């Protein structure tokens, strides 16, 4: 937090067991009765941190985050309390490259994040970057469905992380898992509105990125644009493997099951195969129940190199608008059993 912890923390948000370098400091933030009204750091205690509006954007340019924690081991950030990014003024006025992540953790091992409400972030609500041993639970993350790039939780370069019992309704990915991540468990997360839980996108500009051991269980997609999704950009190298989505409830979810290896990161609709592709393998979609708001309930669109070890079983997805649903595969190798709609396009 780089020496400015006190000014950001209010009653209702407790920050404990802060260890920086060799020194160990305890902050009882109940003693700091400050409040963000967007301008001053000190006014009546509200249990709330409010970001300044977009006119203050120059302050965040170098950091790319509003509340930034770096190199803190054993940090606990606990609610109740609210972190309000005051995003409405940013979304319309400020280009994405100048909008900060609201709460960002970098190189913070053994991090606990629990019980807070996160509102209307300028860009992503929470970033977890190069951290290991992270437990996130009991959060409420809320922004309008049309707010741009407001991912709920964005994870990169991190290992051994659990997210549980959390509600995320925003304008972009509920949880986005980027390259350099492994051993991520996500349980009992309700998403919607938003774009669902995404692995990727991976491989932009030919980069090498790996994601493995991601297990999503007991989650709900409520009127999300996508559900369980893996997206890779042609030309990248590396892998996305040992990934499962199990016991998923769908409430009029768009595109409930998607592997998209022709993703373009918004630049186009369908990027063509290249000589290289991220290798997608050992991916399980199992125990999906509920309704799809899109005709294509399952779309396994792999690169020409193919996806291996895809398992689709124990699925019952019906249409939320009374139509027959479709399943589409492209170069997807694997096995299937007991699915509605039937998956007859997997290659063996
Ligand atoms: C992550 O942190 C470790 C430990 O400081 C460092 O060695 C490594 O280079 C970092 N990785 C990235 C990709 O930033
Ligand atoms: C995730 O769940 C798997 C299977 O239950 C378990 O082996 C693994 O240790 C868990 N990972 C974390 C980070 O809790
Ligand atoms: C789904 O979302 C709608 C609209 O936000 C909400 O009214 C409903 O309670 C949610 N359903 C569940 C089961 O969470
Ligand atoms: C699938 O779900 C629908 C709607 O709940 C139900 O009517 C149908 O019997 C289920 N089909 C199977 C094979 O379980």
Automatic annotation (TrEMBL):
It comes from Hibiscus sabdariffa (roselle). It is found in: Secreted, Cell wall. The active site is at residue 195. Keywords: Cell wall, Cell wall biogenesis/degradation, Glycosidase, Hydrolase, Secreted, Signal. This is Polygalacturonase. It comes from the Eukaryota. The keyword Mitochondrion does not apply. Its main location: secreted. Belongs to the glycosyl hydrolase 28 family.
């Amino acid at each position: 937090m780089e020496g400015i912890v006190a000014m950001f923390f209010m009653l209702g948000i407790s920050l404990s067991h802060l260890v920086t370098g060799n020194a160990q400091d305890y902050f009882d933030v109940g003693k700091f009765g400050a409040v963000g009204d967007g301008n001053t750091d000190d006014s009546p205690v509200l249990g709330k941190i409010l970001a300044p509006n977009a006119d203050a954007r120059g302050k965040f340019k170098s950091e790319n985050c509003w509340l930034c924690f770096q190199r803190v081991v054993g940090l606990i950030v606990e609610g109740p309390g609210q972190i309000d990014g005051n995003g409405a003024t940013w979304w319309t006025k400020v280009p994405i490259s100048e909008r900060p992540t609201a709460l960002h953790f970098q190189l913070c091992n053994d991090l606990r994040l629990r019980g807070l409400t996160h509102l209307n972030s300028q860009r992503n609500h929470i970033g977890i970057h190069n951290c290991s041993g992270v437990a996130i639970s009991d959060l409420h993350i809320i922004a309008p469905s049309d707010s741009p790039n407001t991912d709920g939780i964005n994870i990169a370069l991190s290992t051994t992380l659990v997210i549980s019992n959390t509600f995320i309704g925003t304008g972009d990915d509920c949880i986005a898992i980027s390259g350099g991540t492994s051993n991520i468990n996500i349980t009992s997360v309700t998403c919607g509105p938003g774009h669902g839980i995404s692995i990727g996108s991976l491989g932009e500009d030919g980069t090498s990125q790996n994601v493995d051991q991601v297990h999503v269980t007991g989650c709900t997609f409520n009127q999300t644009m996508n559900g369980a999704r893996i997206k890779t950009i042609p030309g990248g190298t590396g892998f996305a493997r040992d990934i499962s989505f199990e016991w998923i409830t769908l409430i009029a979810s768009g595109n409930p099951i998607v592997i998209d290896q022709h993703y373009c990161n918004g630049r186009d609709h369908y990027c063509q195969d290249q000589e290289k592709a991220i290798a997608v393998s050992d991916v399980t979609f199992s125990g999906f129940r509920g309704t799809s708001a899109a005709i294509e309930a399952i779309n396994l669109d792999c690169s020409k190199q193919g996806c291996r070890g895809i398992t689709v079983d124990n699925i019952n997805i019906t249409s939320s608008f009374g139509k027959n649903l479709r399943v589409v595969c492209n170069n997807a190798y694997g096995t299937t059993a007991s699915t509605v709609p039937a998956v007859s396009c997997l290659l063996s």
